[in-house]
Write a structure and sequence with these properties.
CATH architecture of chain B: 3-Layer(aba) Sandwich
Structural class of chain A: alpha/beta
CATH topology of one domain in chain A: Rossmann fold
CATH class of one domain in chain A: Alpha Beta
Strand order of the largest sheet of chain A: 1-10-7-4-2-3
Number of domains of chain B: 1
Radius of gyration of chain A: 26 Å
CATH architecture of one domain in chain A: 3-Layer(aba) Sandwich
Chains: A alpha/beta, B alpha/beta, C alpha/beta
Mean pLDDT of chain A: 95
Oligomer: heterotrimer
Distance between the termini of chain B: 60 Å
Number of strands of chain B: 12
Strand content of chain A: 5-15%
Helix content of chain A: 40-55%
Distance between the termini of chain A: 53 Å
Structural class of chain B: alpha/beta
Radius of gyration of chain B: 21 Å
Number of strands of chain A: 10
Number of helices of chain B: 7
CATH superfamily of one domain in chain A: NagB/RpiA/CoA transferase-like
Low-confidence stretches of chain A: none
Number of helices of chain A: 23
CATH topology of chain B: Rossmann fold
Helix content of chain B: 25-40%
Strand content of chain B: 15-25%
Mean pLDDT of chain B: 95
Shape of chain A: globular
Strand order of the largest sheet of chain B: 1-12-7-4-2-3
Largest sheet of chain B: 6 strands, parallel
């Protein structure tokens, strides 16, 4: 099945699941309330958004300079930087590192880039023990499912479903208490943190000026993942640059406000190198893998380049009516929601993934909420235009050429209008059957009957002094 | 077997090629400087009394304990009371004037982190006591670092993290916190810094707040004024 | 003032009463309404599906039709958006760019025209009933219209305006989206209609007939008593 057909199939099933949709909507309604408070805490949220978009513009539009600066500063303190053009190179580096260092057990903190390069499968295939330490990611790993939302990986699950997963895989006692469920995961993970030979993380930002990565989290699992094991590998998209350390004073509160509706997330940590000689503890080795994986393709599109400004807060998902009704798994790819629909065609192929840009009513709620002012909904439109320019769908092309032909000839348009009631009458016997061209509409909604007169006819009659009403 | 070659040349070439076309800028002006950004960010309070009030209300919302002491001795007494009530078998800590001062005369056994310490032993400690770089009023945060707070693990592994700070360490906002770190360390910034904002938490289970996910379930901030 | 009216193709064909009401209101306020002949469509259907060449061909004609207009009122939020926001883009780097920008500058959405161009909020209307307002996405987010329709509705005698929780949430029409992704479109429609039901309103009102078609389509299929009306129809009521 093509990705597009799969999407339609999954969307149909997801929208039919009323309890799940209701659950998601309730969760996100709670977020919206808290989000407004977090935003109102700023003295000028719109001013902050504008500043954030300008800083990201500076970083992305001088990406080569800032990546080189980051590399220089990081390497000066013993960090090993590996530039990976694609998934294969990134995976190969990590696998070789594991081989050379005799790694057996690996603990991970949340990193969507590792999902993007299908790292876990590659590691498990080679026999490495890999555990996701973020609670939501851990639950999804135990269920053999991908994250539902790149910030809130198991937001769709009820507590009894989580308990069932723990009972099945960890042999824990059933419980409906969130505290007990969290404690089960905490106890399990403590030992994983202590025994792991390698910790793999992502990063929210690459600070060019100081050669540091910045990681934002609430649980503390990233801090443990990166402090306890002897080796720390961070897998980071090249677009994550921020020019200066102080830029974080703006970005950390904004990421918290839009991502999880908090004043500041629980732990915002900066890592500048492996353990330095003066330090008491810390990893002996620190590697940062800078991942391209087609981001340069997006960079090369000046119209959509600002999609690389994304700080992966997930706010666009949280306000998107499509996401709310079909859920994260329906997208079938690493990045869901509006940002996912914008960038996936660039990262994974326009013709195969254009349907994600099509599956939107272009309502614009995403653009309105984005903390760095990415023109998301217009990019969806541009993807549609680009897909058509590269490969028009033959019957659509014919249809719109016909549409254009008629609409440029008022007499033809009026004729088409006159034929409409006839069309409706003819439609009656095949109404709502597979033969009915209006079926996608009429299966679930009434279609209006044509009125006695069109506006043009009313206006004409008026001109001839016939009644307007 | 060998490591794949780092592809910096190819990636940089692609970046430079891509950037030959310019993208429309969000504004004709240069990005605003650090100081002027403060006018959009949350307020921090102009003086100590407002900042301490802000820090206090923030930590309350975060469910972090914030205790003010007129003297180190008063703080010692609080610590001793807790140690008795909660039956601490030991306190994990690092060597620092403030932590040494706070534990002076305490009978509770100490687990002192020093290079080469046993992780499993640290894992068993009920309490971790550290100093810090700064307290941030704007967000109710504690800034720790590898240099000032006993490394990277002490403040995150034991289930109860106690931080000791003095009044001069209270700064209004994140911008001021960065400035303070720069002033203290110059070009040699610590290899690890972390803004800790409340105890460890998760909302992964039905968006219900649970404290103590993987990091400390309890955070107590001792301010010696 | 001579006001040139653009009546979207589907309003002409399916919801002429909305346009008729606009004429009534504008004439009641003392203005002359001009309906340039030969107008058909703004070009949004091919535009939204990515067929910009075909959209441009239709838009070019529409540009000519309104070339001499003093001021243009677009009969729906989405068509006004097409003129104001997307025509300059569609004709960017073409000989018609200046003309497209000129049309954009002189086009208004209906509520925008009344409140901002004419400075009027009370049009002397009377309408007894509980009304809730649906914000069409184009009007709300592209044209930044939120208070304008509400200011007008609050001046209508006898009308009780109740806000729905999901007023700003997309109804799920989105043009071809409604038939290309019908399951999702209907789910969004369901959310909107449930929110309307929660208000206890008898009428749902919008500046966009296409949204109303989507919303009333669901309401009628589910035999809900709520009726849909264009903002102009309310304002034309006496």
């Amino acid at each position: 099945m093509s990705a597009s057909s799969l999407f339609q199939h999954d969307a149909k099933n997801a929208t039919a699941n009323l309890p799940r949709r209701s659950f998601i909507r309730t969760a996100l309604a709670g977020y919206m309330g808290k989000r407004k408070a977090a935003q109102d805490y700023f003295q000028d949220w719109q001013g902050a958004r504008q500043a954030a978009s300008e800083i990201k513009y500076e970083g992305v539009n001088h990406l080569d300079r800032y990546l080189e600066e980051f590399t220089r500063n990081a390497e000066a303190r013993g960090t090993k930087i590996f530039w990976a053009s694609n998934s294969e190179q990134a995976r190969a580096y990590i696998l070789e590192l594991c081989r050379q260092k005799g790694v057996q057990s690996i603990v991970k903190s949340k990193t969507m880039t590792s999902e993007e390069i299908h790292l876990n499968e590659a590691l498990e295939k080679e026999g490495y023990h890999v555990v996701e330490s973020d609670l939501g990611e851990f639950i999804m790993q135990l269920r053999h499912e991908t994250p539902y939302h790149f910030v809130l990986p198991c937001m769709h699950l009820r507590r009894d479903e989580i308990s069932a997963t723990f009972e099945k895989t960890l042999k824990s006692a059933p419980t409906r208490d969130p505290e007990e469920l969290t404690a089960i995961a905490r106890r399990f993970m403590r030992q994983e943190f202590c025994r792991a030979d390698l910790g793999i993380s992502g990063a929210n930002f690459l600070v060019a000026e100081t050669g540091m990565i910045s990681i934002t989290e609430n649980e503390g699992n990233a801090r443990l993942t990166t402090a306890l094991p002897k080796i720390h590998v961070a897998l980071v998209g090249i677009e994550k640059v921020l020019p200066k350390l102080e830029d974080l004073a703006l970005f950390l509160p904004m990421l918290s406000a839009t991502g999880t509706a908090q004043t500041l997330t629980g732990y915002n940590s900066l890592y500048g190198g492996p353990r330095q000689p003066v330090e008491i503890d810390g990893p002996e080795e620190f590697h940062v893998i800078l991942l391209d994986n087609h981001r340069t393709r997006l960079l090369a599109d000046p119209e959509q380049r600002d999609a690389l400004h994304c700080i992966r807060c997930g706010a666009c998902l949280n306000v998107c009516p499509i996401f709310k009704n079909v859920g994260g798994h329906t997208y079938g790819t690493t990045y869901q929601g509006p940002i996912g629909s914008v960038i996936t065609p660039h990262l994974r192929g326009l013709q195969d993934w254009k349907h994600l840009s099509g599956a939107s009513s272009l309502c614009g709620a995403c653009t309105e909420t984005c903390p760095v002012k990415i023109d998301l909904h217009h990019h969806l439109l541009q993807n549609r235009r680009n897909a058509v320019a590269a490969r028009p769908v033959w019957w659509e092309k014919l249809l719109f050429q016909g549409f254009s032909f008629v609409m440029r000839r008022p007499a033809l348009y009026r004729l088409a209008g006159k034929l409409a009631p006839l069309g409706f009458a003819l439609r009656k016997p095949i109404g709502n059957t597979p033969l009915d061209p209006l079926r996608p509409w009429t299966a679930t909604r009434e279609f209006p009957a044509p009125p006695p007169r069109t506006f043009q006819e009313i206006w004409k009659d008026r001109g001839q002094n016939k009644p307007i009403v | 077997m060998a490591f794949p070659k780092s592809d910096s040349a190819a990636i940089l070439a692609r970046i430079r090629e891509a950037l030959r076309l310019s993208a429309p800028a969000p504004s004709v002006e240069a990005p605003p400087d650090v100081q002027s950004r403060r006018r959009w960010l949350p307020k921090a309070g102009p003086d100590y009394s407002e900042q301490i009030a802000l820090f206090s209300s923030q930590t309350e919302v975060l469910k972090a304990g914030f205790l003010r002491f007129p003297s180190l001795d008063a703080a010692r007494q609080q610590l001793a009371a807790w140690a008795r009530e909660e039956k601490w078998d030991r306190i994990a800590t690092h060597s620092h004037p403030l932590t040494d001062g706070l534990l002076d005369g305490s009978e509770v056994p100490r687990f002192q982190v020093a290079p080469g310490y046993d992780k499993q032993e640290l894992e068993k400690c009920p309490v971790g006591l550290t100093a810090c770089e700064a307290l941030v009023a704007q967000t109710g945060s504690v800034l720790v670092s590898a240099a000032s707070s006993g490394g990277r693990t002490l403040s995150i592994l034991p289930p109860h993290h106690i931080v000791i700070a003095t009044r001069d360490q209270l700064v209004p906002d994140l911008t001021a916190a960065f400035a303070r770190v720069r002033a203290a360390y110059g070009a040699q910034l610590p290899g690890f810094l972390s803004f800790i904002t409340g105890p460890s938490r998760t909302g992964d289970i039905e968006r219900i707040l649970v404290l103590g996910a993987h990091g400390p379930k309890r955070l107590s901030i001792f301010l010696i004024e | 003032m001579k006001v040139s009216l653009f009546v979207p193709c589907f309003v002409d064909q399916f919801f002429p009463q909305a346009a008729v009401s606009m004429v009534e209101v504008l004439e009641r306020l003392g203005h002359q309404v001009d309906y340039p002949p030969g107008q058909t469509c703004c070009g949004q259907p091919p535009f939204n599906s990515g067929y910009w060449d075909e959209a441009r061909a239709v838009a070019e004609r529409t540009l000519r039709v309104f070339r001499d207009a003093e001021v243009v009122v677009g009969g729906s939020g989405s068509c006004a958006t097409m003129f104001k926001v997307f025509y300059p883009e569609l004709f960017h780097h073409t000989p018609l760019e200046t003309e497209a920008k000129a049309l954009a500058a002189k086009t208004y959405e209906f509520s925008e025209f009344l409140v901002h161009k004419l400075g009027v909020t009370d049009v002397g209307a009377r309408f007894e009933g509980k009304v809730t307002f649906h914000d069409g996405c184009h009007g709300l987010r592209e044209l930044k219209l939120k208070q304008e329709p509400r200011k007008l509705l609050r001046q209508v005698r006898g009308l009780e305006l109740i806000e729905m929780g999901e007023a700003e949430t997309c109804c799920g029409f989105g043009g071809a989206f409604a038939v290309k992704f019908p399951a999702i479109s209907t789910a969004m429609d369901e959310v909107k209609c449930n929110s309307i039901a929660e208000t206890g309103a008898d009428y749902v009102v919008s500046g966009d007939s296409s949204c109303l078609m989507q919303i009333t389509g669901y309401l009628q299929r589910h035999q809900r008593p709520v009726k849909g009306l264009h903002l102009a129809e309310i304002l034309a009521s006496r």
